[in-house]
Amino acid sequence: MISTGQQTRAQFVSIIKDIHPYIDFVHLREPSWTDNEMIEAIDLLIEEGVPRNKLVVNTRVNVAHVMKTYGIQLTNESMDVTEVKKFYRHLRVGCSVHSVKEAIDAAGHGADYLIYGHIFETGSKPGIAPRGVKQLEEVTHNTTAPVIAIGGITPENAQLVLQSGASGIAVLSGILLARDPLKAVKKYQECLAGGIK
In terms of Cα–Cα distance, which of 62, 39, 19 is closest to 181? Predict the structure, then answer.
């Protein structure tokens, strides 16, 4: 589960409080929040019972380190994964990648997992062609790091994503902006368990 950047901290925390038993990780990707606002959100999530070891912070290594979250997600504008692994050994390090070459490079430098996308058309990437499941297959077949697919993934197409070699899916608006986020997350969970074909 990745935050959408479209909700207040209170709204986000309120939803995650209810759905966290059904998701593996909560990825906080909120570029408009200050470090202190990010820390406040993490504190609120923990107060609401969300395990610290489910939390991943996007790009802000200092916040992830101080808050002892599970991990950090790096982008192509972040510090090199090798440096992060060297100085923050307690953090699991994910890297966002957009090609086979980037995936091979990130895995070769020690990334613990990769997020690759966008797979399908999505409202967050208007006018940008999706990479599709064929390219996802190329990425998953050419790297040893687990690949999490992102972008336009619905309960109906999630099985296709897993069949392409992805180790998991990352979802934003499909759950967080759903009319009933709890119902939505359960539908995804059912799909991932093989209940929807």
Answer: 19
- DSSP assignment of the chain equals -B--SSS-HHHHHHHHHHHGGG-S-EEE--TTS-HHHHHHHHHHHHHTT--GGGEEEES-HHHHHHHT-SEEEE-TTS--HHHHHHH-TTSEEEEEE-SHHHHHHHHHTT-SEEEEE--S--TTSTT----HHHHHHHHHHT-SS-EEEESS--TTTHHHHHHTT-SEEE-SHHHHTSSSHHHHHHHHHHHHTT---
Q: Decide if 98 is catalytic.
A: no
Select from 116, 49, 60 the least CA-distant residue to 91. 60
For the cut 60, the answer to whether the pLDDT of residue 171 exceeds it is: yes
The pLDDT score that the predictor gives to residue 195 is 47
Greatest CA separation found in the chain?
44
Q: State the amino acid at position 39 in one-letter form.
A: I
The model's pLDDT over 34-43, given as tens digits with 9 standing for 90+, comes to: 999 999 999 9
Instruction: For residues 44-72, give the mean pLDDT.
Output: 98
CA distances from 190 to 21, 108, 112, 134 (A): 14, 34, 26, 24
In 10 A of CB 139, how many CB atoms?
27
Residue 171 sits at φ, ψ, to 5 deg, of -125, 145
* Catalytic member of 65, 98, 109, 118: 118
